[in-house]
Amino acid sequence: GIRTGQEYLDSIKVRNKVEIYVMGKEVKDVTTNPFLKPAVLAFKATFDSAWDEDTKDLARVWSPFINEEVNRFNHIHRSPEDLAAKVKLLRKISHKVGACFQRCVGYDALNTLYIITELMAQHGKTEPKERFIEYLKTVQKKDLALAGAMTDAKGVRTLKPHEQPNKNAYVRITEVTKDGIYVSGAKANITGVAASEEIVVLPTRAMGPEDQDYAVAFSIPTDTEGIKIIVGRQLNDARRLEGGEIDALPYFYNHEGLIIFDNVFVPMERVFLMRDWQYTSQLVEIFSAYHRQGYGGCKAGLGDVIIGATYNLAKQIGIEKAPHVQDKINEEIFLTETMYAAGIAASLNGIEVCPGCWWVNPMQANVTKHLVTRFPSQIAQLAIDIAGGILGTAPSEWDLKNPKIKELLAKYLQGVEGYTAEDRIRMVRLLENVALGVAFLIESVHGAGSPAAQRIMFSRLYNLSYAEEVAKRLAGMKSNVKFTKKVEPWKESETEKLAKEA
Ligand code: SF4
Ligand code: FE
Fold first, then answer.
1. pLDDT-based confidence at 502, cuts 50/70/90?
2. Do 320 and 443 belong to one domain?
3. Are residues 350 and 490 in the same domain?
């Protein structure tokens, strides 16, 4: 069934076996810990989206697997419209959170495993699919909060997993028994992990036969013995520990963590890829394209928040009608809508790679993410420009509250009548935290693959020789161009090959 946000909170509140470290201290209850609570509330927003009037039509979707409505974050896409609904929903949730809400990686991991296990079944290996479908049904019935874990610790970047001096630089199978497998290693930069109930682990790169122990995908409850989670720091994070309500903001943050697996047992019914190195290359491409598409939604949503903050700050000091300000806001709108348009295109041009397996359009998904590696910093720069130097120098909320100086600050921080000094500080803090935060500036570059990873896909997916033949024909040179029904200049055949390669 579909859980409420509160039901999710109640479920993760008490976890005795969970081992989570924040700034050197162990945390058991993530729902009350001041450092993690804002990230948990951001995750919770994905549950609330199934109940909120403005998002519930997007967030609720019928699942043929359990014959019930499920939360879209645990849904398997069944059409291009489903893919587009994801992007639309992500944009809307960003408006309520102002940060990354961390549940899409698990969502993309489910959809990736659905395709991969189906491809394995087509090649005669049917157990992974059977196990996966059973797992999917449980996830949908219980409406579980999943984190997806892909990026390994990776050690020396030029060495393959089996060549690493640290044998566990990539998560690997250390032992196989008839009941399951044992795994060791670490997954890094894992979004939302401390707020998750289960972790879906995927391999992070294409593997060869010599790396087969590293070709492993499985799911595991977050509070399994042998799993340690170390939560990372972010700019300004300690403000959350100060106990105020302006500087640390009443709304949300995301968090990332390092997951260490120390000889963890995974029951066989939770193992979806076991030494099947032949499928790792496709798995990585399928997953990364799904997540790259999603960024067109969530990052456009953060763009909206920043546009709104920019406009309001301009109004607070009376410059909103200045032509250069209007022009800069128009530029922010253009950049934001371009990211969104690309994400929608990647969705509506999605591809059915096996019967009922709806994947995004890989070229357009990669374009979406590549725009997202560039545009957010441009949007942030325009916002900084309009907000003024106060964005870097504003006094703290404690100054605003100090009786000896608060009247003076009220006088000197006010611009246009109708806005108070507190309004100014609140909006400056919002802009500072969203526009200069991890989700908008850093995750936009490296999440779902760093910029170079998309550029590799451009040359891989684009049909350069076709384009050359088109140009040669028009130039009157000898050309063997064939105009077929498949008119897309990017290689449809390459996509089909991805699906068939194994
Ligand atoms: Fe979802 Fe965006 Fe966060 Fe990825 S970065 S988990 S797509 S909100
Ligand atoms: Fe992300």
1. very low
2. yes
3. no
Indicate if ligand 1 lies below 6 Å from the C-beta of 191.
yes
Question: 88 C-alpha to center of ligand 1: Å?
Answer: 13
Check if 357 is active-site.
no
In-domain check, residue 46: no
Count structural domains, the chain: 2
**CA of 91, nearest ligand number:** 1
With tokens 């909120």, the residue in question is 52
For 449: left if phi > 0, alpha if psi spans -120 to 50, otherwise beta; the answer is left
| Catalytic residue list contains 191 | yes
Range of the domain at 403: 284-460
Ligand minimally distant from the alpha carbon of residue 290: 1
Q: Catalytic residue at 4?
A: no
Residue 160, phi then psi, degrees to nearest 5: -75, 165
For residues 353 and 423, membership in a common domain is answered with yes
Q: Do 492 and 396 reside in the same domain of the chain?
A: no
pLDDT tier at 497 (50, 70, 90 boundaries)? Answer: low
Let me know: does 277 contact 212? Beta carbons within 8 Å: yes
CA–chain centroid gap for 41, Å, is: 16
> Based on the domain organization, do 484 and 495 belong to the same domain?
yes
Residues 444 and 343 occupy one common structural domain: yes
Has 256 been annotated as catalytic?
Answer: yes
Ligand 1 contact, 100 CB (< 6 A) = yes
- H/E segment holding residue 182: strand 180-191
Instruction: Tell me if 16 is assigned to some domain.
Output: no
> Using CA positions, which residue lies closest to atom 5 of ligand 1?
100
Domain shared by 420 and 482, yes or no: no
Amino acid at 299: K
In this predicted model, what pLDDT tens digit does every residue of 314-325 receive, in sequence order? Answer: 999 999 999 999
Residue 149, φ and ψ in degrees, nearest 5: -125, 110
**Structure confidence by residue, pLDDT tens digits, 59-74:** 999 999 999 999 999 9
Q: What is the pLDDT of residues 460-473, one digit of tens each?
A: 999 888 889 999 99
410 falls within a domain: yes
104 is annotated as an active-site residue = yes
Q: Which of 298, 304, 368, 372 to mutate to test the pocket of ligand 1 (most atoms within 8 A of CB)?
A: 298
Question: Looking at the domain assignment, is residue 322 inside a domain?
Answer: yes
